[in-house]
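Researcher: I need the complex structure. Ligand is beta-D-galactofuranose. Inputs:
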Amino acid sequence: MKLTRRTLTKALASASLTGLLPAAAFAQNKIVLGFAQVGAESEWRTANTESIKSSAAAAGIDLKFSDAQQKQENQIKAIRSYIAQKVDVIAFSPVVETGWDTVLLEAKAAKIPVVLTDRSVNSKDTSLYVTFMGSDFIEEGRKAGKWLVEKMKDNKGPINIVELQGTVGSAPAIDRKKGFEEIIKADPKFKITRSQTGDFTRAKGKEVMEAFLKADKNINVLFAHNDDMAIGAIQAIEEAGLKPAKDITIISIDAVKGAFEAMIAGKLNVSVECSPLLGPQLMSAVKDIKAGKSLPKRIVTEEGIFPMEVAAKEFPSRKY
Ligand code: GZL
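Model: Output:
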């Protein structure tokens, strides 16, 4: 009989059941997944981490988890530690698009498959990862732009837009900007007058919006790359004596609980959905990889858009 992982698992299981082997030895046979998370910068990230941890537990996968505090060097360190521990699979959400080839080549040399979740890398060598699962950020930017074009169709302009960008160099920041500009460039009445990173956090979003408001009295629209920065900006807009979503139209992305609360309070006009609930899909991919199944190079998350008019109705059924 060929000794495969399956037959070994069966043998270990019967041995542990008969007490010949401690249960821990059998547990040793669990798939071990090393996950290097970006950080805990936003509501979205918190929901993403919860999805990964709860799905690993439900799938019986032994999860090793690290939080990089939004620093690439910490993610690289974590990936190297997973290689040293000889985990079965490595997964991570790259904080920025560049600078990963060296450590991914080390994982490849160690024959440890890698799954990209949420954000991708811009490496030319796509053999460095098995699959990339996550949203289409360019499409999210397009959805934001299309909503604004429709909202302003009877406004002859000029329409001055300020933009709170996500983390510099990150796939969502680069691609959401790309998609949004692709749509609004069709009409010269739209102009992005100021654009700066708020690093996806509420604190930085508020700080940058305060600076925008001090410098510019002609802001008509805020486009925020995530809800946390939009929520921080809403505080700055109110402290400046203006009415968010009325004096300044606010468009955001993620559709986290905080965004629904802001829309229900009439302070945010719309949020484009970006689902963090990637845990189940990731665990299924990990099991498929260990079972020797092939996976598509790209798995896209399906998602919608939520204007404030539907927020109260949709909120009770939201999962994050
Ligand atoms: C998007 C994700 C982004 C969210 C932010 O998939 O990478 O990072 O939009 C989060 O809220 O910080």
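Model: Summary of the prediction. The longest strand covers residues 190-197.
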